[in-house]
Specification:
The protein is mostly helical. It has 20 helices and eight strands. The strands form two sheets. The chain has a six-stranded mixed β-sheet with strand order 3-8-7-4-5-6, sandwiched between helices. The longest helix is centred in the N-terminal third of the chain and has 33 residues.
């Protein structure tokens, strides 16, 4: 179905682009364009009629297959859905355009020609509204980018096709006229391609989402191919521009320009075919099952971020890149090598970029950029903690420090001792979550850790990754204090109790800071001090105007409670991971702790208690006021 839709979109776009091109080109040199009028009208009528086929195929792709499509269903689809209404609008414009092109067959009017041309450009622009641009969840500037992108791109392609047609059918025209047309068209093409580039970046920002998605998704790989074809188009255009600059004033090789233009048009038609296909498939930013095709990836954190010592391969590759970059500059600027600089300097520069890329490269797998099936939640972390204790402590130890009872006896295939990874160390953050998923699925890098695919299902493995990423923060999180730290530790989400079903998760509280309080009110010595601390924490939260979420067990004061967690035990268990202190034994129970989470969702500060005269309330108020005025950073629950 996708191929059928893409093919129809291709057939819909190409004739209308050609019609606009044949309307535009004669105006650039003052011709009446009479010989193109029948062709323009035919292309416009064809575009209007084939639109009905697009409606049927679009409806067939959306309406369940078991439901037959007849005229009544099509009518309901056209006037009752946002896609259908967009199609109706484009069809009205297409028929207006067709009518104007037919009117031109019987009337010669400069005003009519101008109106027809701009109506045709409008027809080209609205091609996008029956594709991804119909998504009303996109920002307005992105939707406008779709319109400008298709209008500029199809105008360029139609003008190029029209230029070739003109070149091969205007043998009686003097070379000066052909040169004039080529020069003026070149100016229009430059503007169109610039618009395509700028709007393409804006569209990619929304539809691709990240650089890795360019290779890890079908949409991204097609977009990469589209960019390669665009590069080929620009090389052909560059060849024509260089010829135009060097040609004798009274000469113009129409045949040669026509051939290079034809090659450029072939690449342009390929661009259009790819554009028609990616307009109907899932955008890269919406893909969750990502496939990385390369055995490496580029990463600063995993390479230079680890502060490699000198000498090392990373350093040698970087030094090589520097030497080659200097060589490229010398070749370009040295008079003795100026004749060869157009070839030698780019070659040296490309080699320098290659060496630099190698210095940033690290191992990658097919799963490297895969997205998790489980959100970063306290419930997910708690589930994984149970699985970890049952399957991983023998090697990694009870709290992941790589000191399990089997650790001293582990050896790789070569018989060399292998120390299990310390999962509390920050190095875990140098790997993508997809890398960790790959090792859980197929076994670790050393060959000692086995595959856990038969033990944990896919969701279990993503739960484990959420836990491991929490665990890797403990070397730093044990030093969280009342003084706000930088934004690096994302607060795991969890479900909240809300009878009105409005604020059902911690995530939905983002927008202003939140005080997350834990306590165990089990009676006994110190109970009065605990109650007083909890009441003071609640008063401080209310005074500062921040959210207050409480995870209390036992008989804690009702007046001290704020919003409550739905799964309190799981939330306490998960947050106990980051509630560590230097030289204090770890426990999954939190007797009392208060985490200050900023308006973006980062854990920024921690208070052991709110004592009577310890200044905690004053310090909390100052930190909360500061965070309330910080810019809101949009992060998702997959941010670790």
């Amino acid at each position: 179905m996708y191929l059928s839709l893409a093919f129809i979109r291709f057939l819909e776009s190409l004739p209308s682009a050609l019609a606009v091109g044949l309307l535009l080109l004669p105006r650039l040199i003052g011709e009446d364009g009479g010989r193109f009028k029948p062709w323009v009208a035919g292309a416009a009528v064809f575009r209007a009629l084939i639109g009905f086929t697009l409606l049927y195929l679009t409806a067939r792709a959306i309406i369940p297959a078991e439901r037959p499509i007849d005229a009544t269903v099509l009518q309901e689809f056209a006037f009752g859905t946002s896609v259908g209404k967009a199609w109706v609008g484009t069809q009205i414009l297409a028929f207006v355009f067709a009518g104007m092109t037919i009117a031109r067959l019987f009337s010669s009017s400069d005003l009519l020609d101008r109106l027809t041309l701009w109506t045709g450009v409008g027809v080209l622009a609205v091609v996008s509204v029956t594709g991804h641009a119909i998504d009303d969840g996109l920002p307005l500037w992105t939707q406008l980018s779709f319109l400008l992108h298709t209008a500029a791109g199809l105008t360029w392609l139609g003008g190029l096709l029209g230029l070739i047609w003109w070149m091969f059918t205007a043998h009686h025209k003097p070379p000066a006229i052909a040169a004039k047309l080529a020069e003026r068209w070149s100016r229009v093409a430059k503007v169109a391609i610039a618009l395509v580039a700028v709007t393409g970046v804006a569209m990619a920002y929304e539809n691709v989402g990240s650089v890795p998605n360019m290779l890890a998704t079908p949409y991204g790989r097609l977009l990469t191919l589209k960019l390669a074809l665009l590069a080929a188009v620009l090389l052909c255009a560059l060849a024509i521009v260089r010829y135009m600059r060097k040609r004798p004033l009274e000469e113009f090789d129409v045949a040669w320009v026509g051939k290079i233009g034809s090659l450029e048009a072939v690449f342009g038609v390929g661009l259009l075919a790819i554009a028609g296909y990616i307009a109907v498939i899932t955008p890269a930013s919406h893909e969750t099952n990502l496939y990385w095709p390369l055995p490496f990836r580029l990463s600063y954190i995993a390479t230079w971020g680890q502060k490699p010592i000198f000498p090392s391969p990373i350093w040698w590759w970087a030094i090589g890149a520097g030497i080659l970059a200097i060589a490229a500059a010398l070749i370009w600027w040295t008079p003795a090598t100026r004749e060869k600089r157009l070839y030698a300097a780019p070659a040296a520069a490309i080699a320098a970029l290659f060496c630099l890329a190698v210095s940033f490269s690290t191992e990658a797998y097919t799963d490297t950029y895969n997205d998790p099936t489980q959100d970063f939640t306290a419930e997910s972390v708690a589930r994984a903690m149970t699985n970890f204790q049952e399957n991983c402590v023998s090697c990694h130890g009870p709290i992941g420090e790589g000191n399990g009872p089997m650790a001293k006896d582990l050896k790789n295939k070569a018989g060399l001792p292998i120390q299990p990874a310390d999962l509390t160390a920050p190095h875990v953050g140098t790997h993508t979550i997809g890398d960790i998923f790959h090792w859980l699925t197929f076994g670790g890098q050393s060959g000692v850790m086995p595959s856990f695919a038969h033990v944990f299902d896919v969701d279990d493995r993503w739960d484990m990754i959420n836990y491991l990423l929490m665990l890797s923060s403990t070397n730093q999180s044990r030093f969280i204090g009342p003084q706000a730290m930088v934004q690096w530790l994302v607060a795991p989400d969890f479900a909240l109790i809300d009878p009105r079903e409005e604020v059902t998760t911690l995530f939905k509280l983002r927008g202003k800071p939140t005080l997350l309080s834990f306590a165990r009110c089990t009676g006994g010595e110190g109970e009065k001090e605990l109650d007083a601390s909890l009441l003071k924490a609640d008063a401080a939260a209310k005074s500062a105007g921040v959210n207050h979420v409480t995870v209390y067990s036992g008989d804690c004061p009702a007046a001290a409670k704020g919003r409550e967690a739905l799964h309190a035990a799981a939330v306490e268990k998960a947050y106990s991971i980051i509630n560590r202190y230097p030289n204090v034994p770890y426990t999954t129970e939190i007797s009392q702790a208060h985490f200050l989470i900023d308006r973006s969702g980062y854990v920024r500060a921690r208070f052991k208690q709110f004592g009577e005269d310890d200044g905690s309330a004053t310090q909390f108020a100052a930190q909360a006021a500061m965070m309330a005025n910080e810019p809101l950073i949009e992060i998702n629950l997959h941010s670790h």
